């Protein structure tokens, strides 16, 4: 079908956008209008709030919002909110939390909270001349120029930590950076950081133009390419860990504690040295992290980008988690770089985000970092525990069973039959179809 481009789509009313989409792309089928309508909130004020979170909104896209209880984190017992659509994520996290609750729970350490941003610029000038200009004049001017922007953040204990001149001319002709580090306290800080960086760009241009250190050709060569925060925050990092005596690693799979510890460590080591495995391994970690990130109104795309960049920081993609079994002690931990906030953005607007933060005891940004790292570690522990014992499909497919049955239109009685049928069997799509057909043909 050939479609016609549209001018001014964003200016249409919500109903106007829907009418155009249904007529242009969906053959005028009003069933699609009904699908969109049934996800609108009956509270018009609440729906308007959701509509204004983004652009060109026509409905809400729901995700399951679940709870993983029994997380003992730094001595506090928490129930974690998780917004995720994948089967077995919440169940695996909950099972891991329960496993560790009588072994001291999860311990966390905030290693650093430094966030980064850059002014990227081109300047055809000798590096030593620019460095002298930066050290003896520019750096002070940059801090003075952002004084008003940083005032409130400084009052809360944050602000600009440092500014460095980075020479990148070996990698790209005449390319330099102003690399700034920030502490944004309880906010994620993207708008704050970007505002500071944009002022850096303006100040750099002004100071170069008025300086006697550069000739006119050099001044004319200055180009401010962009001013933008980095979502790679290798110095905004939290460690979460669990440990116990190997003799206390009781597992119900039938293998000994020693064999469990040995196979578990082998599985982690494989993820440390094999990128193909590490990718899936870390994806599982992020199942746990992202679910809580979304539930607390933070940016899961930034979280993902940072974690995977960190996993490749040594030039080869590797595991985010690590394990040792020395001297009879099993130790499993994650160092997770993550930048999140508990003020600003959706945290003060989205009702379920406010519920999530209240459920977690209204944590600080650092406390939320700890919770997120624990969620990722727990998810990874649960996955590896299954992989080295019963296999991943046994638990995952049992959780996926209801998705298959719902696709087939099973009744509640039929669903209960299948729960009983697969109580001592591994769920497979093929076996579900066979048993479903047998049941329906009785």
Automatic annotation (TrEMBL):
Keyword check for Oxidoreductase: yes
InterPro entries: HMG_CoA_Rdtase, HMG_CoA_Rdtase_bac-typ, HMG_CoA_Rdtase_cat_sf, HMG_CoA_Rdtase_NAD(P)-bd_sf, HMG_CoA_Rdtase_sub-bd_dom_sf
Catalytic reaction list: (R)-mevalonate + 2 NAD(+) + CoA = (3S)-3-hydroxy-3-methylglutaryl-CoA + 2 NADH + 2 H(+)
Matching Pfam families: HMG-CoA_red
Protein origin, superkingdom: Bacteria
MF term (GO), any: hydroxymethylglutaryl-CoA reductase (NADH) activity
Keyword NAD among record annotations: yes
EC code: 1.1.1.88
Keywords, ordered alphabetically: NAD, Oxidoreductase
Associated pathway: Metabolic intermediate metabolism; (R)-mevalonate degradation; (S)-3-hydroxy-3-methylglutaryl-CoA from (R)-mevalonate: step 1/1
PANTHER family: 3-HYDROXY-3-METHYLGLUTARYL-COENZYME A REDUCTASE (PTHR10572:SF24)
Family the entry assigns: Belongs to the HMG-CoA reductase family.
The protein's name: 3-hydroxy-3-methylglutaryl coenzyme A reductase
Organism of this sequence: Chryseobacterium gilvum
């Amino acid at each position: 079908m050939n479609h016609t481009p549209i001018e001014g789509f964003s200016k249409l009313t919500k109903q106007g956008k829907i009418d155009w989409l249904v007529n242009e792309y969906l053959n005028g089928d009003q069933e699609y209008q009904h699908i969109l309508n049934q996800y609108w909130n009956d509270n018009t004020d609440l729906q308007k709030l959701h509509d204004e979170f983004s652009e060109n909104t026509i409905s809400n896209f729901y995700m399951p919002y679940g709870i993983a209880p029994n997380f003992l984190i730094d001595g506090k017992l928490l129930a974690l909110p998780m917004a995720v659509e994948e089967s077995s994520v919440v169940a695996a996290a909950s099972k891991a939390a329960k496993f560790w609750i009588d072994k001291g729970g999860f311990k966390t350490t905030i290693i650093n909270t430094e966030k980064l941003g850059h002014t990227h610029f081109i300047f055809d000038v000798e590096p030593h001349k620019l460095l002298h200009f930066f050290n003896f004049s520019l750096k002070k001017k940059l801090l003075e120029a952002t004084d008003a922007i940083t005032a409130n953040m400084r009052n809360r204990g944050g602000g600009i930590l440092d500014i460095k001149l980075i020479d990148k001319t070996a990698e790209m002709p005449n390319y330099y950076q102003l690399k700034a580090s920030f502490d944004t306290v309880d906010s994620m800080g993207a708008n704050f950081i970007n505002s500071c960086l944009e002022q850096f760009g303006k100040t750099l241009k002004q100071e170069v133009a008025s300086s006697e250190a550069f000739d006119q050709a050099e001044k004319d060569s200055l180009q401010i390419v962009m001013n933008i925060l980095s979502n790679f925050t290798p110095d905004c990092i939290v460690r979460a860990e669990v440990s116990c005596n190997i003799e206390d690693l009781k597992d119900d799979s039938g293998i000994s504690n020693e064999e469990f510890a040995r196979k578990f460590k082998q599985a982690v080591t494989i993820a440390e040295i094999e990128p193909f495995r590490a990718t899936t391994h870390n994806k599982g970690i992020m199942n746990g992290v992202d679910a809580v990130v979304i539930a607390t109104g933070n940016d899961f795309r930034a979280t993902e980008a940072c974690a995977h960049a960190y996993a490749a920081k040594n030039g080869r993609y590797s595991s985010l988690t690590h394990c040792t079994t020395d001297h009879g002690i099993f130790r499993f931990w994650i160092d997770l770089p993550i930048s999140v906030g508990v003020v600003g953005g959706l945290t003060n607007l989205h009702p379920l985000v406010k519920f999530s933060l209240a459920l977690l005891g209204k944590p600080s940004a650092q406390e939320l970092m700890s919770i997120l790292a624990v969620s990722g570690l727990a998810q990874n522990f649960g996955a590896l525990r299954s992989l080295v014992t019963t296999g991943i499909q046994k638990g995952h497919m049992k959780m996926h069973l209801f998705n298959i049955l719902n696709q087939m239109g099973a009744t509640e009685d039929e669903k209960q039959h299948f729960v009983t049928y697969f109580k001592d069997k591994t769920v497979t799509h093929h076996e579900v179809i066979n048993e479903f057909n047998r049941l329906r043909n009785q």
